[in-house]
Structure formats: structure tokens, C-alpha cells
Design goal:
With 194 residues, this protein is an alpha/beta fold. It has helices at 21-24, 38-41, 44-47, 85-93, 105-112, 123-135, 164-172, 176-181, 184-192, and strands at residues 6-14, 70-73, 97-100, 117-120, 140-144, 149-151, 157-159. The chain has one domain (6-192): Alpha-Beta Barrel (Aconitase, domain 4). The chain is 34% helix and 16% strand.
Length: 194
């Protein structure tokens, strides 16, 4: 897992409320056990017509959003089932952070375990972000995980909450198993006393 320290990026706006994990990655793509190719299936039913052709008006299909790493989403992002494939698909497409007023607990936990940063902001900041991107679509936001700050152009930095263990894992670039393995010598020393 790559270290997550600082990110500066344009923003993809998907204002829909209650985006569930089946909309993020439809169930028909859940037969895989790895992340390969899941980026192409991200928001598949919104990105493609029934014949497989691209819907040019969907934000992920627009050229100006191809390098964006942040999604600004409506309230309650990631609700629905517990599929880990949802953060897999987002990161496989190139998304590193999602900003919303709230996240489903299971999605938030899965995201943090897969190098996807869910950032919770209050309703006023949320609304001001939508207004900023509507007025200046090329605006970039900066995220500093160490200080837990989101810096907004023409504004001040706002702080966001994050679980301290998840923050440490993201900053050091390890998942939970990697964290345990980093303490292998301590584990072996303990086991030798048993």
C-alpha cells in the first residue's frame, strides 16, 4: 500500500445523496478477488449505456476529470452492502479521497483499509465546496493527512476526523496485516516465553 501523506487535486463532483455500494460497483463485478480491472467497472451503470457505449455526460467520462483524485459526493456516501470492492474500484480508477458529510460505517472502514481517505466535513463546508467547484471547475483542494487538514482555495484549512490507527497505517503505507508483521520480532519474543 502506498503512503498517503499529502494530496493536491481537482475535484470530481457527484452530488447524489445516498450513493450505495451497488451504484459504486454493481454486483455483477463482484466475482473477482483482486483489484485488477475494477476501475473500469466503477459507477458502471452510470458511465455506460446498456450497449456498453460511454455516456459522455457522466463526470468520470469527461476529459477534464481524468486526472482528478478527489470525489466530492452528496450525503451518506457508501451506504448499502459491505462490499470491499467499492473502495477497490474507486482506488483502481485513481481516486484517493472522497469528501462528504457522512459515510456508511462499513464503507468508511473498508476505505481506510484500502488507502482511500473518507473526509467528513460539516454541511456549510460541504455546500461551499460545491459552490467553489461550480464557479471554478479547475480548483484544486489540498489534503494533509498528518495535520488532518483540507485546504480550500480562497479559504482557510479545515480539520477532519480520522481514527488514529487508520491514520498511522495510511501515513506509513501499511495495512493491518503489514502493521502486525512489522512487530514480528516482538511476537516471536512473546511466543518464545509461552
Amino acid at each position: 500500500m502506498a503512503k498517503f501523506t499529502h494530496l493536491k487535486s481537482k475535484v470530481i463532483v457527484i452530488p447524489n445523496r445516498n450513493i450505495d455500494t451497488d451504484q459504486i460497483i454493481p454486483a455483477r463485478f463482484l466475482k473477482v478477488t483482486d483489484k485488477n480491472g475494477l476501475g473500469e467497472a466503477l459507477f458502471s451503470d452510470w458511465r455506460y449505456n446498456s450497449d456498453g457505449s460511454v455516456k459522455p455526460d457522466f463526470v468520470l467520462n469527461q476529459q477534464q476529470n481524468q486526472d482528478a483524485k478527489i470525489i466530492l459526493a452528496g450525503d451518506n456516501f457508501g451506504c448499502g452492502s459491505s462490499r470491499e470492492h467499492a473502495p477497490w474500484a474507486l482506488t483502481a480508477w485513481g481516486i484517493n479521497a472522497v469528501i462528504s458529510t457522512s459515510f456508511a460505517d462499513i464503507f468508511r472502514n473498508n476505505a481506510l483499509k484500502n488507502a482511500l481517505l473518507p473526509i467528513v466535513v460539516n454541511k456549510d463546508i460541504h455546500q461551499s465546496l460545491f459552490e467553489l467547484v461550480a464557479q471554478s471547475p479547475d480548483s484544486e483542494l489540498s489534503i494533509n493527512l498528518a495535520s488532518q487538514t483540507l485546504t480550500i482555495p480562497r479559504s482557510t484549512a479545515v480539520t477532519f476526523p480520522i481514527d488514529s490507527f487508520a491514520k498511522n497505517c495510511l501515513l506509513t503505507g501499511v495495512d493491518q496485516l503489514g502493521y502486525i508483521l512489522s512487530h514480528e520480532s516482538l511476537i516471536e519474543a512473546y511466543e518464545s516465553t509461552c
